[in-house]
Amino acid sequence: MEHLTVTAAQRCVIEAVGQLGTENVALEQCLGRVLAEDVRANRDQPPYDVSAMDGFALRSADVAKAPATLEIIEDIKAGDMPRKTVQAGQCTRIMTGAPVPPGADAVIRVEDTQSVSDARVQINVPVKPDNDIRPKGEGMRNGEVVLVKGTELTPGAVGMLAMVKRSSVQVYRQPRVAILSTGDELEGLNDPFDANKIPDANSYALMAQVQALGVQPTLLGIARDKPEELRLYLQEGLQFDALLVSGGTSVGVHDYVRPTLEALGVQMRFWRVEMKPGHPMAFGATAESFVFGLPGNPVSSMVCFEQFVLPALRRMMGHASIYRRTVEARLTHEVKHKHSRTEFVRVMLSREEGGYTATSTGAQGSGILASMSKAEGLLVVPPQSKGLAAGSLVTVQLLDGTAYQQEAGGEW
Ligand SMILES: Nc1nc2c(c(=O)[nH]1)N[C@H]1C(S)=C(S)[C@@H](COP(=O)(O)OP(=O)(O)OC[C@H]3O[C@@H](n4cnc5c(N)ncnc54)[C@H](O)[C@@H]3O)O[C@H]1N2
Ligand code: MOO
Fold first, then answer.
1. Across the strands, what pairs with 56?
2. Separation between Cα atoms, residue 274 and residue 3, nearest integer Å
3. Alpha helices per DSSP H over 270-365
4. Across-strand partners of 394?
5. Which of 16, 69, 208, 363 has its CA 20 to 30 A from that of 52?
6. Span from the CA of 277 to the centroid of ligand 2 (angstroms)
7. Dmax (CA) of the chain
8. In this structure, are 302 and 210 located in the same domain?
9. Is the keyword Translocase in the record (predicted)?
10. Comparing C-alpha atoms, which of 168, 166, 172, 167 is closest to residue 152?
11. C-beta of 297 in contact with ligand 2 (< 6 A)
12. ipTM of the complex
């Protein structure tokens, strides 16, 4: 499986993974989850025609030649039921959300009236029938599906669930994700400082990328470059829905990850993708688990997460929109491209007249996390590109935000 493009590798991942099972979660915990059931309204809302304004409910015909003075027969607050019928020459004082009394066909807001006495009001302007009346069932009708299966639970959707009195709801399960770093050179966050070692940044950058999807991963720690130790860690990681291993995926003599995974029964689907950074990216599966072998270089592992792990996890969680949103941006400088791999360039975006502009965040080496930490997006240089001129229109994957799209946004 040589010369696999990013798009082809993404397809391979997405075809392999599917939605996880479902679970019931409390309304307080469901933000960002995906509905695994249709949710129906259990009442009409509003339950009757109600006033949209604080004012007076009246018969529009009575005020056709406004100004006109009407007799106030009743006061109705939200929560009250009207007791009287509005007859010719009459009105009721009504508050927002209160039921419109029989006989009245319109509401006029208080600003368009003038008090004459406690019992009489002058209406200053005419109103059309139905003015400022919110009809029964305008918001939802009893029995109708108000949220369809597959909907992501946004704050608005959570409000809707409360509106139909759902204190818990059936959603797709969150993936259980394990993260493992490998390499003798790595220094754990709590290990003593040693200037000759490499701090384990990948575990935490990957942790944060998973957390940004609303999932709390498990950090397995650091496996040293000893096949037996690595085997134990990988075995543990394969108990999870997804295992992210960084380092040891290329062809060095101590790159034991791939052979050890295979020895543990993992079927490798690919182990190289035509991309930069991120070339030695591996993907495999067992019956219960998916393994992403991410390159050790910190930026490479993060970029591979964006392209392969993120859509896979979102698919497991039941989302239909699984890819980062892409935008068009105008490049503020030249980008050279002298190979035939898809390149991802870390960029900052600014919003200017006519759209976004994209500017590199600095040195793009795959170990240089500083330029990743400033990045708002990844500019995609397609494999066939001969380089991009300043001022050209380019595609950028947004790294921040919670907006996603159904398609990757291009073939690359
Ligand atoms: N002969 C070849 N050598 C290399 C190739 C190749 O195709 N042929 N590919 C290069 C590319 S591209 C990358 S990317 C790296 C990936 O190699 P590995 O996945 O095997 O990663 P390591 O060799 O273990 O480490 C690479 C680099 O990253 C640092 N690292 C590793 N883990 C962490 C961590 N948890 N936190 C921070 N930094 C980490 C490690 O110290 C190395 O500097 O291979 C090239 N070589
Ligand atoms: O995948 Mo490597 O990232 O090009 O350094």
1. 93, 108
2. 6
3. 298-304, 310-316
4. 329
5. 69
6. 4
7. 96
8. yes
9. no
10. 172
11. yes
12. 0.96
